[in-house]
Each structure stands twice: as C-alpha cells, then as structure tokens.
Amino acid sequence: MNQQYYIGFDIGSSSVKVAIVNAITGENVLSIHEPKHEMSILSEQSDWAEQNPNDWWGHLCTGTKRVIRESKIDASKIGAVGISYQMHGLVVVDKEGEPLRNAIIWCDSRAVAIGNKAFQELSPERCTKSLLNSPANFTASKLKWVKDNEPGLFKKIDKFMLPGDFIAYKLTGKIATTKNGLSEGVFWDYESDTVADWLLTYFDFENQLVPDIVENFTPQGAVSKKASEETGLPAGIPITYRAGDQPNNALSLNIFNDGEVAATGGTSGVIYAVSNNKTSKEANRINHFAHVNYSKENPTIGKLLCINGAGIMYRWLRNQSSAESYETMNREASKVPIGSDGLVILPFGNGAERMLNNTNVGTQFCNINLNQHSKGHLYRAALEGIAFSFAYGMEIIENDDAKIKVIKAGNDNLFRAEIFSKTLATLIGYEIEIYNTTGAIGAARAAGLTDKNFERFGKNITDNDHVMTFKPIENNTSYLDAYTNWKKELYKQIKH
C-alpha cells in the first residue's frame, strides 16, 4: 500500500508553521516554520497591529516547498489540507480577491471603544445571550472601525475574512468561512444558529459582505492549479478543516467534549474549556467560541480565559538574572520549600488582565526578606505565582458552570517545569496530561477527520504524543496555604 500524508498549516503572527503527518498513524513526518526569523508586525500608531496577508501566503508557499523537499516525500501522496490560524483578525478583499489593506490582527486594540459601545447599546443581556460575548475588540468591531475611518476603502470591500479564510481562498480560489470563524469574529447568533443579522444592521454592514459558510471535516474547496504551482501541492486535493489557533490547540490535544480542558503555557497562558453550556455569567472575563466540532445538534462551546502574565514573567526573570537556562532556574527553585518562604509574586505585568476585570495590577514582588530570600526563591515564587494565576482562572471557569473532567497541555516551557505543573495539578485536584504536539501537526491530522472517527484520532495522539501525566499531591496543605497567601496579596491589589 502506498504511503499517504496530510499537510497542516498554522498561520501565526510570528511565523507560518507547516507539518506533514502520516495519514494512517498520525505520526509527525516533519515540521518547519517560515520565515526563520519572526515576521514583523506593523504598528503605525500605539495599540495598532497589522500584517500583509500576502506575506502569510508567501511564507506558506516557501514553507510548503521546503517541507516537501526536506521530508523527501512524494508530494502526489498528500491527500488533504488542514489550516490553523491566528484568531480575531480582519482581512478585507475586493471583487478580484485582492486585499484592500493590511490585515488588522488579533493584538490590535483600536476597536475596543467601538465594541464596548456596541455592548451597551445592543444591551449586555442580548449580547451575552445571543453572541455569548461582548463585540469587544473582535473582528466585527474592527470592520466597523474600517467603515468609520476608511469609508472610501470600505465601499470597495466585497468580502471580509478571518486569516485562515484568506489562506483557504489563496489555496482554492473560493471565498468561504466557517461557523467557528464567524463566532471568533462575534458575528454568530447562537440562539438562531445563524449569522447575527441584527448585529450587521447595528453596524450598518450589508449581508453580502459575509462569505459563504462551509462545514469542518468536509471538503471546503480544492487546491487550484495556480496554488499548486506556487506551493508544490497536488492540484485538486481538498481543504477539509480550518480553525482558530486556540480551538485548534484543543483539537491537537484530543479535546472535543464537555468537561475537557486545554491549557497553554507560553508567553501568555490560556485555559480553553469545552462545554455544552451556552450560558455565561462571565462574558466580560471569558470569551466563548464555537468549538471545531460545533453543530446545532451538538453545541460544543469553547470557554477561553487568557492570562497575559504567564511565561513572559519567567522569561523576564531569566533575562534579568542572567540565568543560563530555564532548567538551571528550575533546579534552583526546587531547593526552596513550597510557598517560597512567604515570598509572593503576582505575574500580571503584561497589560490589563481580562480575568481581573481588565485591571492592570502589574507584576508585584511581595514580602521580600533581604536576609532570607535568594534567586532560587524568586524562581520558585514566579513558577508558583503563574500556577496560582492558572488555578484562579480555573475557579472562574468552574464558577461559570463549566465542568472539568480532564486537563491536557502541550509540552511547552511552563509545563516542562515540574514545580509549575505539580502545583497546578495539586491545587485544581485533577491530573494534567502533557503531550508533545503543535498546532500545525493538529491541523494536518484534522485534515483526515472527514470520517469524524474521533476515537481513532485520539488514539493516534495518545500513541504518538503523550509525554507524562502530573498527578495531584495528596498532602496538599502546604500548597493550599501558599495559594491562600497569594490570593491575599492579589486582593490587596484589585480591591484597593
């Protein structure tokens, strides 16, 4: 039997990742990223962030040819394409499908006031009930900013798209989006299970701006002859999957069902809990999006809580202390007792924290004893402080009527730190399963899910990617005492 493969793309703001996997086993054949150095983000004004969508395409073409060449596979054996992408971005194109301006990407905050105003004028009750979110700084509000500030350009817009929709269009020549993408842009009405026409009316958008909707795990379009020439992919193979990076990260960890939680511990932290509950008391602190397997019959919702001050705290501490490596820091931290001898670090120094009701408390070093505390104490207090912030976020999600049955995480820097993972597992009382996978690998595997055989999909992840499982420590008194001490310091900052 001839070997078959799937290819996955992950369109980030720093690079485009490309992965090829074995179509039968899901095993990663090769993963690469382009460009070798981070892509630039254009910021003409404070809080603006833009990228040229054609740059993503150029790097994807280069990366695809490179991964085929370096893996030495027969490109004709690639059977399908999956796409993951940076969420909440806005791409606008004319009737020829050409971008009319740079994409306004996820970290651009120019539309915050527009979204907040819409939330109040449409009413928090209606937005929370129907959209499960405030329009906030999402794609719909960004499109309204273009309408208000670039009216001449706005009149030329034929369709708006999410970043992954643009890549799918470049591959197929077909402009389309998904329910998942529309929910990420806060265009989706969960009550009627349709595009929120009333929101379009409020913003004075024509319905024709919305692309056609395609379903995940079904053929969404085929690679065109032109795209084949530019990428090296076989013409005619289908794109069968696309999703934003956080829902796709959950898929990569085999998370599809009520009570399953994905955690990410990179520069910022993310808790993404899948729930069948379409209500929320926390629409200002938790974002809600249609999960990759969402349908009217199976309304799986991703409850997403972001922690800005996470891995960036530990990286900052490494840079300032000139530590040789994170492993060196972890070894020094392990010599210090649980609770860091009273030293507390609040790691919230990376902007306003949505989970703290958009309070910007900064990073706080509390109770430093100059005669007692060392660099090891700082390292442990940082790891504990980040773990405590995750535990605090988990409490918010559980209080919003989300179940937690299992927690899975990628094998990134924070979760490789035993102190962090053991502290978090012990405080929340659940095992944390660690997997060595990426968004591009997940997207590639998802390209083969047209049979919706989630059991086989999950087995491939377990067989290929499981690294370890951190179990809660039974004697947890010291951990609970340290967490209580940390929360006391946090409350001083958010209630003063």
List the helices and strands and how they pair.
Elements: E1 5-11, E2 16-22, E3 28-34, E4 50-51, H1 53-71, E5 78-85, E6 91-93, E7 103-104, H2 112-122, H3 124-131, H4 139-149, H5 151-154, E8 159-161, H6 163-172, E9 176-177, H7 179-184, E10 188-189, E11 194-195, H8 197-203, E12 212-213, H9 225-231, E13 239-244, H10 245-252, E14 260-265, E15 269-275, E16 287-290, E17 301-307, H11 311-321, H12 326-334, E18 344-348, E19 362-366, H13 375-399, E20 406-410, H14 413-416, H15 418-428, E21 432-435, H16 439-446, H17 454-465, E22 466-470, H18 477-494
Helix pairs in contact: 2-3, 10-16, 11-13, 12-13, 13-15
Ranges where pLDDT stays below 50 over 5 or more residues in a row are: none
Q: Given this structure, which CATH class of the largest domain is correct?
A: Alpha Beta
Helix content: 25-40%
So, the CATH homologous superfamily of the largest domain?
A: ATPase, nucleotide binding domain
Continuous helix count: 18
CATH topology of the largest domain: Nucleotidyltransferase, domain 5
Radius of gyration, in angstroms, nearest whole number: 23 Å
Average of pLDDT: 95
| Main sheet characteristics | 7 strands, mixed
Distance between the termini: 68 Å
| CATH architecture name of the largest domain | 2-Layer Sandwich
Percent of sequence in beta strands:
15-25%
Structural class: alpha/beta
| Strand order of the biggest β-sheet | 16-17-15-14-20-21-22
| Number of DSSP-assigned strands | 22
Number of domains: 2
**Large-scale geometry:** globular
